[in-house]
Amino acid sequence: MPDKFKHLRFNSLTIHGGQKPDPSTGAVMPPIYQSSTFAQMAPGEHKGYEYSRTKNPTRHALEESIASLEGGKFGLALGSGLAAIDCILKILKPGDEVISTNDLYGGSYRLFKQIFEPFGIQFHFVGMGDALSIESHVTENTKMIWVETPTNPMMNIIDIKAMSLIAKKHSAILVVDNTFASPYLQQALSLGADIVMHSATKYLGGHSDVVLGLIALNDPELAKKLYFIQNASGAICGPMDSFLVLRGIKTLHLRMQRHCENGAAIARFLNQHEKVAKVYWPGFENHPNHKVAKEQMKDFGGMLSFTVKGNSFEDTLKVISSLKVFTLAESLGGVESLAGHPASMTHASIPKKEREKTGVVDSLIRLSVGIEDIEDLKEDLDQALQTI
Prior knowledge:
Order of helices and strands: HHEHEHEEHEHEEHHHEHEHEEHEH
CATH class of the largest domain: Alpha Beta
Number of domains: 2
Strand order of the largest sheet: 1-7-6-5-4-2-3
Helix content: 25-40%
CATH superfamily of the largest domain: Type I PLP-dependent aspartate aminotransferase-like (Major domain)
């Protein structure tokens, strides 16, 4: 990052962090370098770029940006959030063990169990609400602790500082999936994480028009390993996708403010609704680890989940099928409000018995609250709930 930007606060870093005008033209936005290869003055002598799988100027600008936002020294951009997770897990070797939350995004669970477990890496899925209980699961083979907070979709909060102490005590790598919070709400590296990753498809891109994954960290040895894997495995993102996420990041702080405002209003609205059984949102004082959320997050975000009264699967389908402003769709974090049914959509890859242990029942609806007018969102949810 240019020295003149090192003192900037977060809202300014979204615009300037890791960025500088293009040296050849003065372009304020990093250009889209749609080139696979770059001219060399002599064999091995080039201007920092030789082949776009290894390094591309547009992607490099994005990598500098995420490092800046997360307070890290190194950033990596990959083809998707799952590509970022895949890259991180390739640090491990057969015989290593990973402790992960039992309330985990279905795609992460599928990658852990069906791709990496057959290669001899063992995963332990445990409740992480009580940090003190985690240490009993640590063995001499525990090499990584994987944290998702807030969790998807039950909105559980995990104490990153407490997990960091456990990880450091046992020489394990602490990884935090920061997708739901974004660096605007939570900066995991400053709380003790070794690696932070994002599905930038969500809040960082912010407009539901790109699929991309990001990683940030401080340790140079870990960074060297990850850069090698990124280049050797080749799951990189293209320059156009990098440009779109860079553009999205520049309004992250503004969008997140409205996501948080609308999310809080919808959580309170649903909590008082006669057709709603339970709302999962970390902003409620009676939410488990609400105090931890207040300490490690700037606000409570735009994600929440709820169940309808009676816990009827048929009623749940009727509600989500009756929404008009909320769109029934996968993903989250875009400017538009989305509704999802985790049991049949994002978490369908987790066996029914396992997902129900964590609360992902057939009557659960997950909302990504967008930045529309709040009254339109309330009216839409109310009319849908009145169908049951």
